Amino acid sequence: MSLWGGRFSEPSDEDLRRLNDSIGFDRALYAEDIAGSIAYARALAAAGVLAADEVKAIVAGLQQVLAEFDNDIFTLMPADEDIHTAVERRLIELVGDVGGKLHTGRSRNDQVATDFRLWSMRAVDRLLSDLRQLQTALVEMAERHIDCVMPGYTHLQPAQPITAAHWLLSYFWMLERDVDCLVSARDRMAVCPLGAGALAGTPLSIDRHALANSLGFRRPSENSLDAVSDRDFVADLLYACALCAAHLSRLAEDILIYSNPAFAFISLDDRYSTGSSLMPQKRNADPMELMRGKTGRLIGNLSGFLSTLKSLPSGYNKDLQEDKEALFDSLDALARLLPVMSASIRSLQINAQAMAAALTEDLLATDLADYLVRKGLPFRQAHHAVGMVVRRAGELSVELSALPLAELQGINPLFAPDVEAVFDFAQSVAQRRAFGGTAPTAVREQIALAKQRLAGQER
Ligand code: ARG
Fold first, then answer.
1. Residue 57 is part of which domain span?
2. Contact yes or no for 134/342 (Cβ under 8 A)
3. 86 CB less than 6 Å from ligand 1?
4. 272 and 135 share a domain?
């Protein structure tokens, strides 16, 4: 018998039950469901709905149900359609009819919304700790490569020299925005729907502020009709997960490119590389491809769930049951991806020689234009002159520094013998020392800031 069977003369069709039941996945909410019920039982007692001995019996019963789940000895029954009905059914078995008083004034609509918010708040904490690990790995690796110069790219074409530390730290800051996004999402989701009833609120004199606080929420929801169907917090988290995955996917793409033998800037540790069943020489970065691949799925979870939300009429609708699998899937994926990315970064080999060998003088073309600017030429003219220098070097098949001074002066008379000093990659990098630049001095400042963030300051 289901908990709502009174008005029905026939049991549900088997196929409908398979479609309707959510216990297969919402069992994951058992701890939050029981915590919500214990707080609610106490609120009912405070409102004079439950006597002292009744609330005592209910709380003890719920604690026993919790122990059964924790120890994996909870036995599901065919009528347990979701976690809420399963817990209540077992409570009544354990404590008798008094257990049937727990649901007074409550609906599964405010109950599930409360449970899932509580669960999501805890999930954010787990995700933040995985993110912090990866950020720490990036900072530690960056610290060891502050003076290591490599080509930087725009449009994946050689652009300007940068330091390897600067490259690694660029991902630290992307992930820092993910942390910010998650922290503010957690803040916004800390609003308690319990007491909203099915849609209209509760007739009982429940102190919803006290109830919300007792569960760790900031405040109760302001509108019961909105509260039961508000899943913005799920959309927020799905977005935060998708964006975080997009950041991992970009890092993965860099690692795939830079570990290609044509670049050979880095190599992944054996433990994070895979081979081919046919080609003995192969060393593939499959984990990075999985980062990229899973990202598509996480973006799908977000857009899929937004589509679920968009046409719902007011109040709770069963469509909302789709919220859980989508969010579980996105969070599970990140829980698998983040530790692998952290370990891959920690064990990354950075090949400074290969990076240095890839530094071609065209990367210094901007520095050459800056040289003319220092001699008084407006930048636009300097840019044009250096463009001609690059073309001339190409025609003569020589590096920029090998062009005779006479050739340079033929293009612009401001070129002088001191132009030689421009052809120094370390010097190019060292000049970009304004805040946020790639110079080792600026990168040291950047690392200090990153460490402050990791230590929980400067938020
Ligand atoms: N399993 C349901 C869900 O996840 C619980 C709420 C059911 N409420 C209802 N009125 N049928 O949304």
1. 14-104
2. yes
3. no
4. yes
Q: 166: pLDDT confidence band, cut at 50, 70 and 90? A: very high
User: 212 and 337 in one domain?
Assistant: yes
CA distance 138 to 169: 6
Q: Are residues 328 and 373 located together in one domain of the fold?
A: no
- What tens digit of pLDDT does each residue of 255-298 get? 999 999 999 999 998 888 888 888 888 888 899 999 999 999 99
- Interatomic CA distance for residues 168 and 367, integer angstroms: 23
C-alpha 336/C-alpha 328 separation (Å) is 12
- Give the whole-angstrom CA distance, residue 257 versus residue 339: 21
Task: Tell me: do 129 and 79 sit in the same domain.
Answer: no
Same domain, 32 and 180: no
Of 231, 121, 128, 238, nearest to 187 by C-alpha is 121
Residues with active-site annotation: 155, 276
Any atom of ligand 1 within 6 Å of the Cβ of 22: yes
Longest dimension (CA), the chain: 101
Is the per-residue pLDDT at 84 higher than 70?
Answer: yes
* Pocket perturbation via mutation, ligand 1, pick of 109, 319, 327 by most ligand atoms within 8 A of CB: 109
Question: Quick one: which of 104, 117, 260, 263 has its CA closest to 187?
Answer: 117
Torsion of CA 10, 15, 16, 22, to 10 degrees: 120
Last residue of a domain, one of 104, 134, 157: 104
Task: Please give the tally of structural domains in the chain.
Answer: 3
Residue nearest to atom 11 of ligand 1 (CA): 318
Tokens 């290969």 sit at which residue?
354
Kindly state the tokens that stand for 236. 């927020």
Domain end point (choices 104, 137, 156): 104
* 282/284 Cα distance (integer angstroms): 6
Distance CA 378, CA 228 (A): 63
Q: Are residues 98 and 20 part of one domain? A: yes
Lowest mean pLDDT among 195-204, 221-230, 268-277, 400-409: 268-277
Place of tokens 């050739």: 407
CB 61 within 8 A of CB 122: no
Of 98, 117, 106, the C-alpha closest to 191 is 117
Does some domain include residue 5? no
Answering whether pTM is above 0.90, one says: yes
259 backbone dihedrals φ, ψ, rounded to 5°: -90, -5
Cβ of 102 less than 6 Å from ligand 1? no
Distances 217 to 118, 168, 188, 189, 192 between C-alpha atoms, Å: 8, 37, 10, 8, 6
Q: Distance (Å, rounded) from C-alpha 440 to C-alpha 417?
A: 28
Atom 2 (ligand 1) nearest CA: 321
